[in-house]
Design a protein that fits this description.
The chain has 322 residues and is of the alpha/beta class. It has a domain at 83-304: 3-Layer(aba) Sandwich (Rossmann fold), CATH 3.40.50. It has helices spanning 27-33, 35-38, 56-71, 87-103, 127-136, 147-159, 202-215, 240-253, 272-282; strands spanning 42-43, 49-50, 116-120, 139-144, 167-171, 189-194, 259-262, 288-289, 303-304. Strands 5-4-3-6-7 form a 5-stranded parallel β-sheet, with helices on one face. A two-stranded antiparallel ribbon has the order 1-2. The protein has a two-stranded antiparallel ribbon with strand order 8-9. The model is unreliable at 1-10, 204-209, 216-229, 295-303 and 305-322 (pLDDT under 50). Residues 1-28, 205-231 are annotated as: Disordered. Keywords: Cytoplasm, Methyltransferase, rRNA processing, S-adenosyl-L-methionine, Transferase. Its EC number is 2.1.1.181.
């Protein structure tokens, strides 16, 4: 490529059709709405306006600008060292979940507070509830094993009138549990969602974060980072995502009437065969795969699985690379 020419725009057809972030970031418009972002915007090597995605302050300013412009969030912050996620990919997950519900609703997207969603690992950023509330008006319960993250998410909810009463944050006291001890007796959700810990150890999480940071920067052009280094305890668990999702399947199998769709993302395609085996063991009566494309990744997979004996409530899940 001739470096004197502008870099081509990212592919617009990779993200969900309803995702408002399908095009490149409009930095002049975002900076006008959020002046703090302007200090980080500069031409990259291709002559396109961008930011240094390896700079946490720049990424946080970009997230604030996106949340303000697209989701009406005026007050958003996260504690130092906590995950600052790429919003476009997070939005994709929410829109695909809406499609799952629409399949059981005569094709109509189901909006409104009567739709209740459990976000497993809501994090300090509270991104999924923010997007789901704005786009579909859903009610959320956000769970996390990190008390600091729970308090930060609560502060975001309290600081923004549009989120008032729409998000309940709960601390999961048992780090090795997911639904056990969290879903209350008689409680029923339409959806659960989860972006599970990717790595199997703290060392692997730290090394992965370092690799991502070194690969980011203005040379990346107008594209988006797949993630940003955050508090490593949110990025790893013993056994990694494969172990985490197996536990999720097992626990969902014990409460098939507690949720209509149990869902989770999966980052590694080699995790999928083990997930399918776990679903079979848990008594899943159907499995569906959903392809998603997030950021610079190739199309990813997702699946849903109703459990036997679920009657009018169907326990299911979606997984995908991210």
């Amino acid at each position: 490529m001739n470096p004197t020419l502008p870099a081509p725009a990212p592919e617009k057809d990779q993200l969900h059709p309803r995702n408002p972030h399908r095009g490149p970031y409009d930095f002049p418009q975002l900076s006008q709405r959020s002046p703090e972002l302007a200090a980080f915007v500069q031409p990259n090597q291709y002559g396109n306006l961008s930011i240094d995605f390896a700079n946490p302050a720049a990424v946080k300013a970009l997230n604030r600008a996106l949340l303000r412009q697209f989701y009406g969030i005026e007050h958003w912050d996260i504690p130092k060292g906590y995950l600052c996620p790429p919003i476009p990919g997070r939005a994709d997950y929410v829109h695909y979940l809406a499609d799952l519900l629409a399949e059981s609703n005569g094709g109509a997207l189901p909006p409104g507070e009567e739709i209740t969603v459990l976000d497993v690992g809501v994090g300090a950023n509270c991104i999924y509830p923010i997007i789901g509330r704005r786009e579909y008006g859903w009610h959320f319960v956000g769970s996390d094993v990190d008390g600091v993250a729970v308090r930060a998410a609560q502060q975001i909810e309290a600081a923004n009138p549009s989120l008032a009463g729409a998000i309940e944050c709960r601390l999961q006291p048992a780090r090795t549990r997911i639904f056990d001890g969290l879903i209350q007796a008689g409680e029923v959700f339409d959806l659960t969602m989860c972006n599970p810990p990717f790595h199997a150890s703290a060392a692997a999480a730290a090394a992965g974060s370092q690799r991502k940071t070194s690969n980011l920067g203005t040379a990346r052009g107008p594209g988006r980072p797949s993630t940003l280094a955050g508090k490593t305890t949110s990025l790893w668990c013993e056994g990694g995502e494969a172990s985490f999702i197996r536990r999720m399947v097992q626990e969902s199998g014990r409460r098939p009437r507690s949720c209509y769709w149990y869902t989770t993302l999966v980052s590694k395609k080699e995790t999928l065969p083990g997930v399918y085996r776990a679903l079979k063991t848990a008594g899943a009566t159907a499995v569906r795969t959903i392809d998603m494309a997030q950021g610079q990744k190739k199309p990813a997979r997702g699946l849903d699985f109703p459990h036997a004996g679920a009657a009018s409530r169907v326990a299911s899940g979606a997984v995908g690379e991210h």
